[in-house]
Amino acid sequence: MSYRRLVMRFRCSAVANDCPKAGLIGGNFASATVLISFGALLGKTSPLQLVIMAILEITIFACNEHLGLHIYKAADIGGSIFLHTFGAYFGLSVTYMLYRKEAAGHTKDGSNYHSDIFAMIGTIFLWMFWPSFNSALGTGDEQHRSVINTFMALLACCTMTFAISSLVDGEGRLNMVHIQNATLAGGVAIGSTSNMNVHPFGAMIIGALAAIISTIGYRVATPYLAKHMKIHDTCGVNNLHGMPGILAGLVSAIVAAMASEENYGYRRYYHASGPCRTLELYSRRKALVNIFWRHPPAHSWYRCEGPGAAICFKGVKKDQTALCRLSSGHLKTLRFSRGEKKFNICTKCNMIEAIPQHLLDCVALVCDDLLKRPDFVLEVMRANDLMDLI
Hints:
Helix content: 55-70%
CATH class of the largest domain: Mainly Alpha
Strand order of the largest sheet: 1-2-3
Radius of gyration: 31 Å
CATH superfamily of the largest domain: Ammonium transporter AmtB like domains
Number of strands: 3
Order of helices and strands: HHHHHHHHHHHHHEEEHHH
């Protein structure tokens, strides 16, 4: 955790100012990445080799995470892509380099009754706390969605694992390896989209697919990798973390492509900047509105001999201000609608969402009249009861 923090400070100065909670969670994520890689190497390496691998992996993990989350702006709240998939295939690449033919099929390459019991206890704890893992970096509604989606995915995954395990077994029995591992694959597969609007039914489909992929992977993929590709996966990290992580990446791309403002509101546009607080979202939206309102309008009638020149005529300051605002488009009664500044209604002809140009057209005036005949414009506006609008 400390080494990951050090690397991230070196890679990105912004990390120095992040909150302690996010920093600690990020450190835990980095530790989990190393533990996943250990799963592919158990029983084949010395402690020194594991230390060297951990140092190298944390460095590459931090750089990869910074590239994906901060440069390419990917959304991965549960770490399915940058944590599970990366850790799995980093470990598999190392085990490929350290491959020994005699390791596969070794007498100690398996489990016994006591190890199965302890492993099952670990599985139960992981199953219970996986929703909190996926939702740790979320806030507000996003965190709530993450907990529910993860829980639904785990439910479907657990049920499907028991069904598929008995199907792929020649004698119709349940395999403890499948139950200990594949029941958690749903939490991995839903990780990247757990905070998105996938709905409970969608989360259950993702969890069920992950269970099928993981269970069949233990039956087919693990022996195939060891026999034909010289990749001896001790704990089956490819089946629990690798392939479900790839599924999570594909699902996140589909869900992101289907995202709309109707479902997410303005938060749809801020995923790329990472988790935002409510006040931050409000201030960004306010800044956006201010930019639009203070920008000179693009109406064709907004032209004069000297842009920005005041309209001067003999009259009270209130009337002069009204005409100046009408010519510039900076009226309090205007509102944004479909990218233009509009009045709610023209009080002369009752037209809904009338633009400033319509007011002039409605009383047979042109834009030059604002500069050359301001007194006449004012008189016409009063005669047609349009002064309340300007």
